């Protein structure tokens, strides 16, 4: 049996350590530059996040009571401005809806009274209206004017198919173009909206007939 040589054993262990270190170096050499950069970034990410959080906390902690009060006041003011803008939009929308409903109501009343208004115009045209009846008719006209109702249709004005309904064509040797000869029933409109076109007799140049 051979004797145990301590020196040879120690030298053998040194060789094993050298081989292990050499393998680590080779593994490091095989790592690509991109992988090394990625590992470096991953290692630095937690520290950057911690740094940002610490910076934010430090900024909040650094606010004085007056600074905090100003920041809260700015937030409240912004919220108040948003609420005010929403309220103004709501109020404008409601106002437009009210105007539309009001116009619809006026149109309904006017449409229902058109036959009576036509009778009043015929009586007025034939001079068969006494003073008391004239006063009532004038009040009716003013009431509709108050609600934006405009009466139109006059003899001699140019014929406009968007405002006039020609119920009869009358040749006229003196006419150079189509005009209103006689208004049979007056027209009514609210703004640009025609409620009823004026029903008229149209004077046309005689050559066109």
From TrEMBL:
GO terms for molecular function: adenyl-nucleotide exchange factor activity; protein homodimerization activity; protein-folding chaperone binding; unfolded protein binding. It holds the Pfam family GrpE. The keyword Secreted does not apply. It is found in: Cytoplasm. Transmembrane segments: none annotated. GO terms for cellular component: cytoplasm. InterPro entries: GrpE, GrpE_CC, GrpE_head. Residues 15-29 have a biased composition (Basic and acidic residues). One of its GO terms (biological process) is protein folding. Residues 1-69 are annotated as: Disordered. CDD domains: GrpE. Its main location: cytoplasm. Keywords: Chaperone, Cytoplasm, Stress response. Residues 45-57 have a biased composition (Low complexity). Belongs to the GrpE family. Homodimer. Participates actively in the response to hyperosmotic and heat shock by preventing the aggregation of stress-denatured proteins, in association with DnaK and GrpE. It is the nucleotide exchange factor for DnaK and may function as a thermosensor. Unfolded proteins bind initially to DnaJ; upon interaction with the DnaJ-bound protein, DnaK hydrolyzes its bound ATP, resulting in the formation of a stable complex. GrpE releases ADP from DnaK; ATP binding to DnaK triggers the release of the substrate protein, thus completing the reaction cycle. This is Protein GrpE. It comes from Alloscardovia omnicolens.
């Amino acid at each position: 049996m051979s004797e145990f040589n301590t020196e040879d054993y120690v030298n053998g262990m040194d060789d094993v350590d050298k081989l292990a270190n050499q393998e680590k170096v080779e593994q490091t050499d095989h790592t690509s530059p991109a992988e090394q950069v990625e590992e470096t970034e991953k290692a630095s990410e937690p520290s950057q996040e911690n740094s940002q959080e610490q910076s934010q906390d430090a900024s909040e902690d650094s606010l004085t009571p007056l600074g905090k009060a100003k920041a809260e006041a700015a937030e409240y003011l912004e919220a108040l401005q948003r609420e005010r803008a929403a309220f103004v939009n709501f109020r404008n929308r409601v106002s437009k809806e009210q105007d539309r409903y009001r116009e619809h109501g006026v149109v309904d009343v006017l449409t229902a009274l058109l036959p009576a208004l036509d009778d009043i115009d015929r009586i007025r045209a034939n001079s068969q209206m006494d003073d008391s009846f004239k006063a009532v008719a004038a009040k009716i006209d003013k009431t509709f004017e108050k609600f934006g109702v405009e009466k139109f249709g006059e003899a001699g004005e140019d014929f406009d198919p968007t405002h006039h309904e020609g119920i009869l064509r009358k040749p006229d040797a003196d006419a150079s173009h189509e005009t209103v000869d006689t208004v049979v029933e007056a027209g009514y409109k609210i703004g640009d909206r025609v409620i009823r076109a004026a029903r008229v007799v149209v004077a046309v140049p005689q050559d066109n007939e």
